[in-house]
Amino acid sequence: MNPPVRAADHRAGIWYGVEQGIIDVLGSDHAPHTLEEKQKTYPASPSGMTGVQTLVPLMLDHVNAGRLSLQRFVDLTSAGPARLFNIACKGRIAAGYDADFTVVDLKRSETITNKWIASRAGWTPYDGVRVQGWPVGTFVRGKQVMWQGEVTTPSLGEPVRFLETLKP
């Protein structure tokens, strides 16, 4: 992450932004740097960490803890990005939309482990963290692509389409 979120007041500021509606999008890139790469002295150490795989379980844990509503989590990760970036047919489950969604089990408790991380990095700073709330399945354009941790369909990626914008 750049800049890194280290101090408690930085984390508190982010949560304040979420609670006040200042923050529109919650997302994660995926910087699959190995521990060897990360242990280099700054500025030779690369920024970022694995994050795509842990985003949903960590945020569902916050939902279960009452820090974030499920509706707000969905808005921050789906509808918010579609609004902000003018993305067509994404961000909601409705007629005419692409039917991209994740099925979650809010009661399922799991422990995040380095072994679970699928990227070349092979590690996560959340190794050993127990969370309540877990992604069970993922659908892309209405087709199941992941179920119970197993990829069920090869990649279905397509270019994102954007809404027409008004020209001045």
UniProtKB/TrEMBL annotation:
GO terms for molecular function: allantoinase activity; metal ion binding. Gene3D superfamilies: Metal-dependent hydrolases, Urease, subunit C, domain 1. Pfam families: Amidohydro_1. Keywords: Hydrolase, Metal-binding. The keyword Hydrolase applies. Its cofactor is Zn(2+). Residues 8-145 form the Amidohydrolase-related domain. The keyword Metal-binding applies. GO terms for cellular component: cytoplasm. GO terms for biological process: purine nucleobase catabolic process. InterPro entries: Amidohydro-rel, DHOase/Allantoinase_Hydrolase, Dihydroorotase_CS, Metal-dep_hydrolase_composite, Metal_Hydrolase. This is Amidohydrolase-related domain-containing protein. It comes from Chiloscyllium punctatum (Brownbanded bambooshark). The lineage of its organism: Eukaryota, Metazoa, Chordata, Craniata, Vertebrata.
